[in-house]
Specification:
The chain is 31% helix and 31% strand. The protein is an alpha+beta fold. The protein has one domain: Alpha-Beta Plaits. A hairpin with a 4-residue loop joins strand 2 and strand 3. Helix 3 packs antiparallel against helix 5.
Length: 229
């Protein structure tokens, strides 16, 4: 599904308009695949599974993301905390949520619509160091959110506090790559980098974060019950 309608993007983005996003329960699964052919099969499987749980009422909304390098597929869904789905594995709590109203679709130099870019930054946490990671994250976000093309950020932390996943969205890959050429953003990352390196040595982060880029493959849900910014 290369092209999504504007209403689908609204459904995916709407949660950021409400403070209630923080504390929401998300089911997130990352599948690693070997090559485009197997990725396509996994995407189709994930879409079928997402449609099934959506139709059964087990999730309030959801999305399937396709890795731009053909190596990953992500399935993520907003789960009712009172439902049976809430007790399963791969459950995360939204600890930070920010959303800027979606801009009109980006255009390339040839006037063609460009795909919005999603990214997941996956961080492994050492026991008891969750709050340190969240503070470092919050220090950097004010510099990132005012950059052109920024749309949204959600920070998810696993219920066992072993993983943190930063799920973000930019208008295009071009906008995302441009933030790393901005001095103020680099300085902000630099201020967090030294503590981050020390944190890795001292056990806050067992190993460096893992960044992956994605495109939207499928989404279910309405603007009333939706998933991510």
């Amino acid at each position: 599904m290369e092209n999504e309608t504007q209403s689908e993007f609204v459904a995916l983005n709407h949660i950021g308009h409400s403070p209630s996003a923080v504390g929401a329960l998300v089911r997130l699964k990352v599948f690693q695949v070997a090559g485009r052919h197997k990725q396509l099969k996994q995407v189709n499987h994930a879409i079928s599974a997402m449609d099934r749980v959506w139709q059964d009422g087990a999730v309030q909304s959801g999305a399937v993301l396709r890795g731009t390098r053909g190596k990953h597929v992500v399935s993520l869904a907003l789960v009712d905390a009172q439902a049976e789905e809430a007790s399963g594995p791969n459950r995360y709590t939204v600890e930070y949520s920010d959303h800027i109203a979606a801009q009109p679709s980006s255009k390339s130099k040839q006037g063609q619509e460009t795909a919005r870019l999603y990214f997941l930054n996956i961080v492994q946490l050492a026991p008891g160091k969750r709050e340190v990671m969240i503070r470092n994250f919050e220090r950097t976000m004010p510099y990132v959110r005012k950059q052109p093309g920024y749309i949204s950020t959600n920070l998810l932390v696993s219920r066992d506090n072993r993983l943190a996943i930063h799920v973000g969205q930019f208008e295009s890959r071009r906008h995302f790559q441009a933030i790393f050429r901005k001095q103020e953003v680099l300085r902000a990352f630099g201020r967090g980098l030294a503590p981050g390196m020390m944190a890795t040595i001292c056990g806050v982060l067992p190993k460096p974060p893992s960044l992956h880029l994605f495109e939207l493959a499928h989404v279910v849900g309405s603007t009333e019950h939706n998933l991510l910014n």
